[in-house]
Specification:
This protein has about 190 residues and is mainly alpha-helical. About 50% of the residues lie in helices and about 0% in strands. Strands 1-2 form a two-stranded antiparallel ribbon. The chain is globular and about 45 Å long.
Length: about 190
């Protein structure tokens, strides 16, 4: 193994990064995070986003290639409202937080997502404590809300609030969290390019 291979870098306690990630995944699986670590919850598209701009590019494709096929439990309206809601809460604070113990485990899962470059989660899971989003509504309204939330996030200069499950995140990690979240949802939306 080449000494600069990041998968074999040693941690301060002498464990390789690869071994640590395997251990992290095992802890998360044992704690009930198996759906998040089982792979991307998509139907073959396997989108990978790293930035808000990546999200917005795919949103533009979804917008011009209507109608779309939803291979997840929610309508396009509800998915976009949900993602906007999550992005807004990163700037205003979540209505309900997981326990410190659950956050510690979820943070390990998030670090695994970062290492693999994507996340997988229950596509029907709501933001805890958030107002219920209607099952359907005007897609144009949800696209506008989501674009506004993305723009607000990109221009945000304040201190971001902790994620309800991952806890405190840097701006860069928050952007990854939003990007991974959107990629997982958008991977289960298909359309025919016109």
């Amino acid at each position: 193994m080449h000494p600069t291979d990041s998968t074999e870098q040693l941690s301060p306690k002498g464990m390789s990064r690869k071994a640590f990630l395997k251990l992290t995944a095992g802890v998360a699986l044992a704690a009930g995070f198996s759906p998040m670590l089982a792979g991307c919850s998509n139907n073959g598209r396997a989108l990978r986003f790293k930035t808000i701009n990546d999200i917005l590019q795919e949103l533009a494709l979804i917008e011009v290639n209507q109608p779309v096929t939803m291979q997840q439990p929610w309508s396009l309206y509800k998915v976009l409202q949900h993602m906007a809601q999550s992005m807004e809460y990163s700037m205003t604070g979540y209505p309900q937080m997981d326990s410190a113990a659950m956050q510690a485990i979820a943070k390990l899962a998030f670090n695994t997502f970062k290492a693999q470059g994507y996340m997988s989660h229950d596509l029907g899971a709501v933001v805890p404590g958030a107002p219920e989003i209607p099952a359907d509504g005007p897609v144009e309204e949800s696209m506008l809300r989501f674009r506004n939330a993305a723009s607000d996030f990109q221009n945000f200069t304040g201190v971001l609030f902790p994620h309800f499950s991952y806890g405190n995140l840097s701006y860069a990690d928050w952007e990854l969290a939003h990007a991974f979240h959107a990629a997982d949802h958008f991977s289960s939306i298909t359309y025919t390019t016109v």
